[in-house]
Amino acid sequence: MLQRLRESFTRFMQGRYGYDDYGRRLITYAIVLIIIEIVLDLVRSTGVLGAAGTGFIYIINVILTIIAIVFIIYWAFRFFSRNITKRREENQRHLRRRRRGETRRKRAVDQRDYKYLTCKNCGQQMRVPRGKGKIVVKCPKCNEKTTIKS
Q1: Rounded Cα gap, residues 78 and 25, in angstroms
Q2: Percentage, residues of the chain above pLDDT 90
Q3: Which run of H or of E encompasses 43?
Q4: For 33, 40, 120, 146, which has the most beta carbons within 10 A of its beta carbon?
Q5: How far from 60 is each of 66, 108, 132, CA to CA, in Å?
């Protein structure tokens, strides 16, 4: 019985996009929103905040529910989609945004130890240690030498 169900699902999913990093992110956001909604509902049911606070929390819960449902519907649309190239493009855009965010976070952490600069010739980003005085930096892309104060 279980084997037949698995085979029929496999046949159904042939030619469909399936699961990827962007889909996992959408489902994660939906689950987090639902958990926040449950916690707010528990706070609302205690009545600690009074009538005005209860009404406000109810409105927030409705908004969070709608957003979570939209995330789940979009995830299902992507999961069962037959337009694989379009879904791959969406996933690639998501991964590029994610990498950019990781680069920004890394830069923020490294800001006190390193100085970032851009090559005037080719635009290549470079990182040099701070506190070394005047140094000559050679661009790894175009070999242009620049003197800077680190």
Answers
A1: 12
A2: 43
A3: helix 21-46
A4: 33
A5: 10, 33, 52
